[in-house]
């Protein structure tokens, strides 16, 4: 049993960014230090939590000291910790990048006031979003998860609208409606579950779950809401315009982190809390949606003319892989699919954040992101193009990237299980990813036609290094596989812990 | 009252609710829809009273019937205020009708359109019926968490069970909810500046005089609602809504000093409630307890949090009505460029 003094560290990833968001709104000093300090402290806290988890095993913390049926419990186990780590790492990267991004735009002397305004509102919204994500991963209570989802989507929508262009505003309004509909569906699901069983705590729920119509109705409603929020095919319509038209750091946050929140919840509900309700047919439906998403997203990504839209459609395609993991996880005794799922989330998170940052830097320099006019940009920003390529390697799933490990584990699962047909989609999706990544890469290396159209100013280090570091982390993730497995099975071998302290 | 007349009353409320909802969705006139929405909120509050949920009824009356109306009105005003918005609205209705008319000119088109509508309505109805049957078949013996709340009530420091749940047992949820409200204001401020319209001069001195008397009274009511939350129905959200209504009244009556409020005090007040809540939660963190109020101080601390949050919630809602950041917020080089 962990001591009280140790597990209160779990509150900090929520409390610190909340305080940071409030303070950033109050003190508008245009400086990096406040948000960066909060992002770094968050990273340190998460690293400290990693050590605690490795020593003590899964942690529980009762907020306010109230016992479970009444109070809210925070739960920290292997999967939650990995998500926290991903958020903290990408968060620190995005914070650095955003500072460089706004500084570059402000110094361009073109509507500097507008960019200053965007920067000052970006920080409080981003820190609030960080708090919501951390709270979501830590929460052990379905109603509390609803509140964190609400905080997450409101701040995400506000960030998406920040660029102020009519296209972005229209897209984020659509995003808002889709997101609210998802929240409402989730809330209705909670109502059914609470009405029939009278508990909200995930651990207690897992103990009382039994097949029954109201429980199933609740789970279906909650899952529909979460699928809408994570842009699973065919509910992805809101994602490409919202992600592609936002500011570059915002696109990175939305695509790399925000949709992971609801996907993670979906996986957790289906294979941990409500596992006894799941039927193979439902899993196959989810898997089929995944296959369709892989192909639809991949093909549309190939057809795009704009770089950021291409990257956004590639997110739609990658969400498909996460869904394909569902049918494979059903018969899985060794829990390798949990590992595969988390590996793909980690790899895709880092890679997509890096990719959107790199695309954003190219946008900054050329003033647009039409792919046919980006010839020869490699000469101006070799590091950025390199980061883009490394992130692309991850999406294709080549070794030793984290994407490779994830896909490899999925493929072995598929063959061991005799469900080989899923592997066709997994491999074809990899080829599609290669096609749309190379489609961007090859013009970047061609000699520019005519005079250089790029902004002559040098690229600041803050714009170049965060995407590079993140894409390298994603690339080398495969080499850290044993360490990550150790985290997942910390103290006792169970990947997932119960909700009861 | 005997049970028959109560049942009759319930039936009337139910039918009115359904009728209002239908009309609200069916009317093409946005202004009419807004008025219907407010009446829907009032009847809904009655329904909550009948369901023995006075806290929800108060919140519904103050927010659903009270404050949402002015919010819609200001949105509608903005939509009509701009030429672009007006043209957009016209175009929307013409285009929409045009499309439908074009399709329905041919008989086959009309039949397909009708079939689609029936199909959609049928799907929705099936879903509704399914969910309703599931609800009706739920075994009712499970008591929910009410028993646990009653057991621990004495330790919570307040007498009202709703307040005990909101601010003590599940105070973490409420903390995050208050952050949601805060983020909503930040989002609105990030999108637009408000330019208080030049004095229209249409406000009669009588209205201003009445508001001058009414506003202090409303603030008193708000504070008493917040205080009352510790033992009866009420609390920070309801009190905050009344406070916001006072603010909206003053703004509508164009009291001259309102326009001169600078950004910094507004920001301070907006952050005040959430920061007090968070700070008091963290102050217990020294011995590893988050949001765990020391026993004898619990009641006092909860009242403190409610007052601070009530104030901030009121301002938050009023800021949402204003619909933009104060004019002097972020005055810099760019502001002038954008304005020109």
Automatic annotation (TrEMBL), chain A:
Name of this protein: Oxidoreductase
Similarity comment text for this entry: Belongs to the CPA3 antiporters (TC 2.A.63) subunit D family.
Signal sequence annotation: none
Species per Swiss-Prot/TrEMBL record: Candidatus Desulfatifera sulfidica
Record GO biological process: ATP synthesis coupled electron transport
Transmembrane annotation, as ranges: 6-25, 32-50, 70-100, 121-139, 145-163, 175-194, 214-239, 246-271, 277-303, 310-330, 336-358, 379-399, 419-438, 468-490
Subcellular location: Cell membrane; Membrane
Bilayer topology term: Multi-pass membrane protein
One annotated Gene Ontology cellular component of this protein: plasma membrane
Primary subcellular site in the record, as a coarse category: membrane
Domain NADH:quinone oxidoreductase/Mrp antiporter transmembrane stretches: 139-428
Automatic annotation (TrEMBL), chain B:
Membrane-spanning parts: 6-26, 33-51, 57-79, 111-136, 178-197, 209-227, 233-252, 264-286, 298-323
Lineage: Bacteria, Pseudomonadati, Thermodesulfobacteriota, Desulfobulbia, Desulfobulbales
Domain MrpA C-terminal/MbhD: 16-80
Membrane topology: Multi-pass membrane protein
Entry keyword annotation includes Cytoplasm: no
Transmembrane helix recorded as keyword: yes
Protein name: DUF4040 domain-containing protein
InterPro entries in UniProt: CPA3_antiporter_subunitB (IPR050622), MnhB (IPR007182), MrpA_C/MbhD (IPR025383)
Intracellular or extracellular location(s): Cell membrane
Keywords associated with the record: Cell membrane, Membrane, Transmembrane, Transmembrane helix
GO cellular component: a single term: plasma membrane
Superkingdom: Bacteria
Span of domain Na+/H+ antiporter MnhB subunit-related protein: 209-311
Similarity annotation: Belongs to the CPA3 antiporters (TC 2.A.63) subunit B family.
Main subcellular location of this protein, as a coarse class: membrane
């Amino acid at each position: 049993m962990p001591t009280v003094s140790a597990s209160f560290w779990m509150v900090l990833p929520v409390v610190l960014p909340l305080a940071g968001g409030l303070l950033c709104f109050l003190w508008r000093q245009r400086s990096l230090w406040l948000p960066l300090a909060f992002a770094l402290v968050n990273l340190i806290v998460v690293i400290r939590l990693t050590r605690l988890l490795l020593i003590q095993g899964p942690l529980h913390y009762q907020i306010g000291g109230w016992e479970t049926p009444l109070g809210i419990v925070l739960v920290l186990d292997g999967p939650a910790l990995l998500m926290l780590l991903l958020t903290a790492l990408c968060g620190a990267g995005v914070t650095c990048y955003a500072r460089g991004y706004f500084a570059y735009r402000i110094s361009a002397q073109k509507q500097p006031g507008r960019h200053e305004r965007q920067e000052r509102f970006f920080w409080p919204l981003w820190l609030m979003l960080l708090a919501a994500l951390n709270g979501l991963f830590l929460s052990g209570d379905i109603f509390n998860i609803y509140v964190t989802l609400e905080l997450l989507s409101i701040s995400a929508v506000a960030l998406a609208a920040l660029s102020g262009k009519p296209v972005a505003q229209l897209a984020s309004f659509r995003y808002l409606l889709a997101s609210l509909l998802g929240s409402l569906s989730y809330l209705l699901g909670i109502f059914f579950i609470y009405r029939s069983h009278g508990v909200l705590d995930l651990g207690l729920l897992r103990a009382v779950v039994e097949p029954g119509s109201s429980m199933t109705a609740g789970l279906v409603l909650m899952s529909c809401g979460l699928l809408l929020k994570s842009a699973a095919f065919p509910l992805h319509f809101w994602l490409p315009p919202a992600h592609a038209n936002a500011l570059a750091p915002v696109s990175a946050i939305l695509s790399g982190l925000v949709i992971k929140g609801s996907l993670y919840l979906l996986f957790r509900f289906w294979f941990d809390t409500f596992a006894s309700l799941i039927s193979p047919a439902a899993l196959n439906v989810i898997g089929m949606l995944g296959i369709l998403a892989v192909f639809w997203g991949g093909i549309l990504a190939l057809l795009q003319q704009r770089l950021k839209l291409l990257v956004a459609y590639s997110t739609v395609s990658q969400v498909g892989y996460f869904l394909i993991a569902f049918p494979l996880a059903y018969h899985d005794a060794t829990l390798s699919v949990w590992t595969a799922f988390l590996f793909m989330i980690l790899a895709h998170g880092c890679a997509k954040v890096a990719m959107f940052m790199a695309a954003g830097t190219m946008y900054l320099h050329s003033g647009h992101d039409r792919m046919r006019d980006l010839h020869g940009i490699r000469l101006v920003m070799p590091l950025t193009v390199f980061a883009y390529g490394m992130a692309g390697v991850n999406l294709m799933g080549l070794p030793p990237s984290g994407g490779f490990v994830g896909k490899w584990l999925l493929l072995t699962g598929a063959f061991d299980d005799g469900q080989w047909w899923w592997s066709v989609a997994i491999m074809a999706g990899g080829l599609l990813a290669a096609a749309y990544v190379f489609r961007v890469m090859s013009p970047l290396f061609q000699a520019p036609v005519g005079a250089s159209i790029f902004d002559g100013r040098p690229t600041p280090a803050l714009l170049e290094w965060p995407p590079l570091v993140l894409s390298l982390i994603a690339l080398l993730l495969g080499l850290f596989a044993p360490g990550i497995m150790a985290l997942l099975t910390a103290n006792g071998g169970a990947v997932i812990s119960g909700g009861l302290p | 009252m005997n049970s028959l007349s109560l049942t009759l009353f319930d039936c009337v409320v139910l039918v009115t609710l359904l009728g209002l909802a239908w009309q609200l969705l069916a009317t093409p006139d946005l202004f009419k829809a807004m008025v219907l929405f407010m009446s829907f909120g009032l009847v809904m509050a009655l329904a909550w009273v009948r369901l023995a949920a006075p806290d929800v009824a108060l919140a519904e009356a103050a927010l659903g019937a009270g404050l949402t109306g002015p919010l819609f009105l200001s949105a509608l005003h903005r939509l009509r205020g701009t030429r672009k918005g007006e043209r957009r609205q016209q175009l929307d209705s013409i285009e929409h009708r045009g499309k439908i008319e074009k399709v329905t000119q041919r008989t086959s088109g009309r039949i397909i359109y009708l079939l689609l509508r029936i199909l959609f309505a049928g799907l929705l109805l099936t879903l509704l019926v399914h969910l309703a049957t599931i609800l009706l078949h739920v075994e009712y013996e499970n008591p929910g968490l009410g028993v646990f709340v009653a057991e621990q009530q004495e330790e919570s420091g307040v007498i009202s069970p709703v307040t005990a749940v909101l601010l003590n047992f599940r105070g973490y949820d409420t903390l995050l909810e208050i952050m949601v409200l805060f983020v909503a204001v930040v989002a609105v401020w990030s999108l637009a500046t408000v330019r208080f319209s030049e004095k229209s001069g249409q406000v009669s001195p009588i209205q201003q005089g009445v508001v001058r008397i009414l506003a202090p009274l409303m603030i008193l009511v708000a504070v008493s609602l917040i205080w009352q939350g510790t033992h009866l129905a009420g609390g920070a959200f309801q009190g905050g809504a009344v406070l916001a209504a006072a603010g909206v009244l003053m703004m509508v009556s164009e009291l001259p000093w309102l326009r001169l409020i600078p950004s910094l005090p507004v920001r301070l007040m907006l952050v005040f409630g959430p920061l007090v809540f968070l700070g008091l939660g963290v102050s217990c963190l020294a011995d590893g307890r988050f949001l765990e109020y020391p026993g004898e101080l619990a009641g006092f601390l909860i009242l403190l949090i409610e007052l601070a949050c009530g104030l901030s919630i009121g301002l938050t809602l009023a800021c949402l009505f204003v619909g933009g950041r104060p004019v002097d917020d972020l005055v810099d080089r760019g502001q002038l460029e954008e304005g020109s």
